[in-house]
Amino acid sequence: VTGLQNKTLITWTFGHSTTKIAEIYREDRIFNTSDGPDGRFRDRLKLNNQTGSLTITNTRTTDSGNYTVNIKARNQTTYTFNVTVYGSASQKMLISAAVAGSLLIAAAVGIYWICRRHRKTDQEGTDQTRNEEITYADPTFYKQKAQKPGVKQEDEVVYAGVLTRN
């Protein structure tokens, strides 16, 4: 429905009953919504008093059915809409998804921590094996031979040598 004239009466009904769930009559300033006979639409119907559009928020599977709008102005027009709501995310599903996500995050953190700790242990083990690779120290003293007899050269003594294996 696009624009309403002052003498337009719009009535919305649900299901096969004639129970009104919404009504607009601009001339008498009537803009009403109803919860329905069983209260199923409580606080979920929004009626646009400019266009006559009816919006149902937080839809449920029980909202499925025939909706009829009757528009009386110069002429009377009736439209029927068959609405099907297949399902909505239940609170239990949302909680289950949140718990599953939390468990996955906890598992990822646990695996990361274990790998990091294992890597640290490997590095400490590598440091120990490096210390063990020093097999001996040579305490033998060596005297270098002079290369030219006319040049004064001081003797250099090598006190120790370290042999490492790579």
Automatic annotation (TrEMBL):
The chain crosses the membrane at residues 93-115. Gene3D superfamilies: Immunoglobulins. Residues 7-81 form the Immunoglobulin V-set domain. SUPFAM superfamilies: Immunoglobulin (SSF48726). Pfam families: V-set. CDD domains: TM_EGFR-like. It comes from the Eukaryota. Keywords: Membrane, Transmembrane, Transmembrane helix. This is Uncharacterized LOC107748828. It comes from Sinocyclocheilus rhinocerous. The lineage of its organism: Eukaryota, Metazoa, Chordata, Craniata, Vertebrata. The gene is LOC107748828.
